[in-house]
């Protein structure tokens, strides 16, 4: 097609408008928050009909994660295996739509592996020889602490599927504010995570008080600072535990009510 | 990771020995095996290093090429990591067997180097938004003898220390078109400052104690390990739990303290070796040229 000189051709590749934002236009300062404040949590188990177990977890401030478990399915190898997949919806992030490429796929694989390593201590895989459990975590909206929410949702989904577990796994995200001597904040929002100097996700089995997973990076400072962060995260996990248990009980009651409807 | 078959009796032997701070090869719980570091082994690269840690053999080559800066960071160059698990290492790596391990290593390396202060990427910029140096770091696993992450991080640090990036000048015409000129002198180059590059320390939990630098047999006995990336100043930049077991919170705090101690020692000895190799210069004996 001949080049049309009356029109202004746009760039050949599409880019997000945020790249051209003038730096220094700071967002209105959010009111200061308490470091150990937990965001409101909404957890529901048993909502997908096609999966053996499913759970949805929403954190106040906009993190929504959906998790589904399929299995146990027959597998060729001798030992039971848990295969985890972590996926983000393309519209889940605040910035540009991520280009599907090796970098994004590698990051999702890393988080899938982190999910699997955190859930493996909790699941009694020895009871499922020659079987595989497939777990998919889908982040619908990333408003901060997405991996931690995915961990809790995954544990709920496994429990909802009736997989034998030693304990639920509760995940908690933390981040360290930038600047020297920044404090560690529990369950950061998306803006706090973006500006953070260091990020950490802890996964705890609260009933057994065992740390199931740990993933952190950034300039967190000396080990004492990281130890303080881990303690804060574990405390947050202990506080979230009763909420997750209650949601499981509610879904079990709902299932029982559907199975035999109450006599009218 | 390469696996070795151990009987129950052997596992009990290893666990009980570690309880008494005595490992199978006579080391203490916080001792490394003998590490051999050699830089400038491959002459076609901008920098290279080979590290032998017991039976683990790693070869890292760094090639500096000119590319376009990323959109989000127009004033910086960047590093790209690739890991190749060669089939020589263990038969499990044949074909696509080593891909999962390679992805894990690459992701850990990216995680460590994504921290801003590790490498001064602003010095890799030639023309903002147009040209920059891209360092392609290729890691080759030649032999797998336990404790891969530590050996790889040492090799990457040594290779980056050894990297020589040629100096370029940017000439601008009257029309504004830029031309890049490479300096004629092959020894005129910029070196990278690797002071803030961290080293990975993997601490494996065996029984109730943790060990540094586990061999393949010890890795088979450990249920969970903690991977820490320690800088020369003793700060941690990355923390990751590996393995299918769980860790007690108290053990994690102990492991972090051990990691900091061992990391600082490792950094000082590594820096000594690298400076010594550097000072030898052209008088260093090379087998072939």
Automatic annotation (TrEMBL), chain A:
Parts forming coiled coils: none
One Pfam family here: RNase_PH
Domain Exoribonuclease phosphorolytic: 38-164
Single annotated GO MF: RNA binding
An annotated GO cellular component: cytoplasmic exosome (RNase complex)
Keyword annotations of the record: Cytoplasm, Exosome, Nucleus, RNA-binding, rRNA processing
Primary localisation category: cytoplasm
GO biological process: one example: nuclear mRNA surveillance
Localization, UniProt: Cytoplasm; Nucleus
InterPro entries: ExoRNase_PH_dom1 (IPR001247), ExoRNase_PH_dom2_sf (IPR036345), PNPase/RNase_PH_dom_sf (IPR027408), Ribosomal_Su5_D2-typ_SF (IPR020568), RNase_PH (IPR050080)
Family to which the UniProt record says this protein belongs: Belongs to the RNase PH family.
Name assigned to this protein: Exosome component 6
Automatic annotation (TrEMBL), chain B:
GO aspect biological process, one term: exonucleolytic trimming to generate mature 3'-end of 5.8S rRNA from tricistronic rRNA transcript (SSU-rRNA, 5.8S rRNA, LSU-rRNA)
Keywords: Acetylation, Cytoplasm, Exosome, Nucleus, RNA-binding, rRNA processing
SUPFAM superfamilies: Ribonuclease PH domain 2-like (SSF55666), Ribosomal protein S5 domain 2-like (SSF54211)
Annotated GO MF terms: mRNA 3'-UTR AU-rich region binding
InterPro entries xref list: ExoRNase_PH_dom1, ExoRNase_PH_dom2, ExoRNase_PH_dom2_sf, Exosome_comp_Rrp42_subfam, PNPase/RNase_PH_dom_sf, Ribosomal_Su5_D2-typ_SF
Acetylation keyword on record: yes
Compartments, record wording: Cytoplasm; Nucleus, Nucleolus
Family annotation (CDD domains): RNase_PH_RRP42
Family: Belongs to the RNase PH family.
Assembly behavior: Component of the RNA exosome core complex (Exo-9), composed of EXOSC1, EXOSC2, EXOSC3, EXOSC4, EXOSC5, EXOSC6, EXOSC7, EXOSC8 and EXOSC9; within the complex interacts with EXOSC2 and EXOSC4. The catalytically inactive RNA exosome core complex (Exo-9) associates with the catalytic subunit EXOSC10/RRP6. Exo-9 may associate with DIS3 to form the nucleolar exosome complex, or DIS3L to form the cytoplasmic exosome complex. Exo-9 is formed by a hexameric base ring consisting of the heterodimers EXOSC4-EXOSC9, EXOSC5-EXOSC8 and EXOSC6-EXOSC7, and a cap ring consisting of EXOSC1, EXOSC2 and EXOSC3.
UniProt name for this protein: Exosome component 7
Gene behind the chain: EXOSC7
């Amino acid at each position: 097609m001949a080049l049309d000189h009356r029109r202004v051709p746009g760039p050949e590749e599409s880019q997000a408008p945020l790249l051209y934002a003038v730096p220094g236009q700071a967002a209105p300062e959010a009111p200061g928050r308490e470091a150990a404040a937990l965001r409101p949590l909404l957890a529901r188990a048993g909502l997908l009909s096609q999966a053996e177990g499913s759970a949805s977890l929403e954190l106040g401030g906009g993190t929504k994660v959906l998790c589904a478990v399929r299995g146990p399915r027959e597998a060729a190898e001798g030992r039971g295996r848990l295969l985890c997949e972590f996926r983000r919806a393309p519209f889940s992030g605040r910035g540009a739509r991520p280009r599907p490429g090796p970098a994004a796929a590698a990051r999702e694989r890393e988080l899938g592996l982190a999910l699997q390593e955190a859930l493996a201590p909790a699941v009694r895989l020895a009871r499922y020889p020659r079987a595989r459990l497939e777990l998919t975590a889908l982040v619908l909206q990333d408003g901060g602490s997405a991996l931690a929410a995915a961990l809790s949702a995954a544990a709920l989904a496994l429990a909802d599927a009736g997989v034998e577990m030693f304990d639920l796994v509760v995940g908690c995200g933390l981040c360290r504010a930038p600047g020297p001597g920044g404090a560690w904040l529990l369950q950061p929002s998306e803006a706090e995570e973006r500006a953070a100097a260091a990020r950490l996700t802890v996964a705890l089995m609260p009933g057994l008080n065992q740390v199931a997973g740990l993933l952190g990076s950034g300039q967190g400072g000396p080990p004492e600072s990281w130890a303080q962060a881990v303690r804060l995260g574990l405390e947050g996990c202990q506080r979230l535990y009763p909420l997750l248990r209650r949601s499981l009980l509610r879904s079990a009651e709902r299932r029982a009510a559907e199975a035999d409807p109450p006599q009218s | 990771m390469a696996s070795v078959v151990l009987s129950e009796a052997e596992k009990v032997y290893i666990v009980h020995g570690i309880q008494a701070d005595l490992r199978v090869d006579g080391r203490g719980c916080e001792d490394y095996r003998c590490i051999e570091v050699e830089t400038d082994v491959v002459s076609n690269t901008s920098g290279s290093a080979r590290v032998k840690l017991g039976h683990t053999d790693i070869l890292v080559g760094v090639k500096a090429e000119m590319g376009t800066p990323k959109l989000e960071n127009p004033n910086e160059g960047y590093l790209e990591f690739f890991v190749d698990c060669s089939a020589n290492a263990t038969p499990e790596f044949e074909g696509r067997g080593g891909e999962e391990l390679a992805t894990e290593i690459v992701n850990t390396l990216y995680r460590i180097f994504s921290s801003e202060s590790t490498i001064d990427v602003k010095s890799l910029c030639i023309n903002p938004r147009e040209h920059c140096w891209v360092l392609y770091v290729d890691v080759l696993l030649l032999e797998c003898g336990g404790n891969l992450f530590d050996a790889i991080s040492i090799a990457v640090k040594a290779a980056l220390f050894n990297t020589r990036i040629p100096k370029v000048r940017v000439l601008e015409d009257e029309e504004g078109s830029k031309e890049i000129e490479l300096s004629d002198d092959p020894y005129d180059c910029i070196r990278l400052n690797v002071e803030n590059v961290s080293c990975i320390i993997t601490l494996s939990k065996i029984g109730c104690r943790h060990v540094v630098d586990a061999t393949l047999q010890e890795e088979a006995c450990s249920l969970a390990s903690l991977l820490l990336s320690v800088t020369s100043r003793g700060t941690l930049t990355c923390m990751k739990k590996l393995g299918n077991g769980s860790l007690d919170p108290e053990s994690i705090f102990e492991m972090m303290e051990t990691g900091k101690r061992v990391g600082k020692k490792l950094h000082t000895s590594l820096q000594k070796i690298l400076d010594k190799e550097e000072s030898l210069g052209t008088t260093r004996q090379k087998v072939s040229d």
